[in-house]
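The aim of this short unit is practical: by the end, you should be able to scan a pair of folded records and say something sensible about each. We start with the first protein, listed as its amino acid sequence and then its structure tokens.
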Amino acid sequence: MLSRRSVRVKVMQVLYAQNRDKELRDGEVLKLYRSSIVGTFDIFLFNLYLIIEVTKVSVEDEAKRVSKYIVSEDDRLFKSTLYHNSIINSLVNNKMLKAKMEKLGFSGLVDVDILRKLYKNFSEEQSYIDYWHYRKGLEDDRKVLLDLYRFLRANKMFSELIEERFYQWISEKSVVIGSVKKVLKRETFEDEFINDYLPANETINEFGETLLKNTLKIEDQLEKYVVPKFLKWDKDRIATIDLIFIKMSLAEILYFKTIPCNVTLNEYVELSKEYSTEKSKEFINGVMDKVIRDLKDQGLINKSFEEN
């Protein structure tokens, strides 16, 4: 579920938290990192929960339509297939998924009136109107659920529901959305299918934790190999995020023998575009390019600069 880039962002975030809170010890930073990994999976589950609960409102919609004093042709035609389809049924009836959602107490986090408002707004979308008029089968079910999720993501109420409960939502949005869409596109839903979306140990432990631990202890190498390259820049005046990215890239270059130097450098330059200032990419690229060449000249790294 989490890519190496997502893990780099999480490492950056906890290092930034430590920078803001000087009393945060290294062991506590590591716990914060592990907690943030769990948090991403919880956000993913919460997105699935909200989709299920919004579709469930269609059952109320059907009941209201058939109980009207005067029932229109559309009311007779309408069925709550948005909820009663094989994809949603597979999610609702999955014991492991249900147990995880119950353990996290999702049912107590959401006001049902908000779910009704979200459903009502979606019920006015032409894609949903066409769906319950002309639905033919599974592919239509999958399409309308993806349309629903797209609609929800663009809705302010939906975003606020998640942001109020998960502070990481903004930074985790892309990876969570990708995973939820994969679920809605699944062909089968085995009993333990949800485990497919747990973060891989290789990524979060072997890469993420190792990167974090080495970055936390790299101050001496930073002073020796990087600070002399700052030239006109005062270390104390460098943007906090830029300095964190430089430390992380140095740790990655020195301690991850299988990651080519240019891959590391490109990753942090790209991250700086999103999380730091407009000039950060040139600064980080300029400093670390010199550092890499110096380290190679000194024989301190022997991996390739370019990916094979």
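Turning to the second protein, read its sequence before its tokens, just as you did above.
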Amino acid sequence: MFLTQSGLQKLKEELAALKGRRKEIAERIKTAREFGDLSENSEYEDARNEQSFVEGRIQELDEMIKTAKVVVKNGGDKAELGSIVTIDMSNDKVTYELVGANESDPSKGKISIESPIGHSLLGHIKGEKIQIHLPSGILDCKILDLK
């Protein structure tokens, strides 16, 4: 899995926050046990479900962090992971940061290099005209800026 440095940092922050919740969840389980019959104890069931989710996510994040390949933008003139690309899409200026799939957040301008737009931009340079193959058809655009 490819990540930018900021993407790796966000995963580490999420992992630390989840690990910090362990004690709180354990206390909720302990308190719920004191209510008696566990078979009809919804508070106990909710706490156990939350514990299960948190532990699963911790394992997932640990694995992601261990296997992550952090890509550092080398300052080249071609669009690559970590590049910030401004394009002209049908007379509409749009700026995207090219990121790995796990960092993708189109609402914040972060698109995956595995998406049709992200993939189409890879390897191209400022001033180049390219075609982006979308499910709805082909979109012609021009790379206006590349950082």
